[in-house]
Amino acid sequence: MKTVLVTGGSRGIGAATCLLAAKAGYKVAVNYASNEVAAQKVIAGIEAAGGEAFAVRGDVGNEPDVLAMFQAVDKRFGQLDALVNNAGIIDAKARVDEMSVERLERMMRVNIVGSFLCAREAVKRMSTKHGGKGGVIVNVSSVAATLGSAGDYVDYAASKGAIDTMTIGLAREVATEGVRVNAVRPGMVETEIHASGGQPDRVARLAGTIPMSRAGKPEEIAGAILWFLSDAASYATGSLLNVSGGR
Ligand code: NAP
Q1: Is the entire prediction scored with pTM above 0.85?
Q2: What spacing in Å lies between the alpha carbon of 131 and ligand 1's midpoint?
Q3: Which residue of 3, 107, 145, 246 has the fewest CB atoms within a 10 Å radius of its CB?
């Protein structure tokens, strides 16, 4: 049975990915930052469908937490076949000329450094160079990386631009070591992330500006992530896939 670690697996796109991965036969490590109740709900959903999963707390932007998280996965599963680098944050709507250094450092620490630290630990376990059996990393970027999010959160968009670049570079770095690295770039998706940035009405307000005239559902992003994880994507690495209703 293959194993996958999904960061930010307790809610939104990550939770949908955990449930779909379990359905596809993966044993799932569900990472969360603080909402243990939400993580346990995902575990219960997986177990009710006959799957296997466990919850692991950890802030991806904190190195000791990341090391402990991967050690917990080693202990529980013995082997890691896949990482979904999904944990990410936004912040309040602001112009660049209003952003504090604290905000910028938090954004880059969680979204960029967090993804790098998790990718690093995954490569150490998966790469044939390190004695591993290969594996797959899927980064969750955003179409914001191509749009820039002017007036909303250029810092967030830039952090996702960094994830796109990391996807291409890391994919090439480990391409002959059995590890594929790809990114899914969601458009606007119906999750709690918008409320966490102080815009609970964002989806309702902006859905009409999307070519398909609706926001995506977390399950529609999870499907693309699962495709990259699967052997059907065996020749895909360094790919950036927009799943964004045409935007
Ligand atoms: P969400 O509903 O806000 O859920 C965020 C998840 O990440 C939760 O499980 C949360 O854990 C976890 N998390 C937050 N900070 C963390 C940290 N420092 N360490 C570990 N876990 C952390 O978010 P979402 O909308 O599903 O977004 C998931 C990913 O998709 C993000 O990378 C986001 O940038 C990207 N994305 C989202 C959209 C969209 O419209 N929703 C569009 C494009 C890209 P707790 O439950 O413990 O808080």
Answers
A1: yes
A2: 32
A3: 246
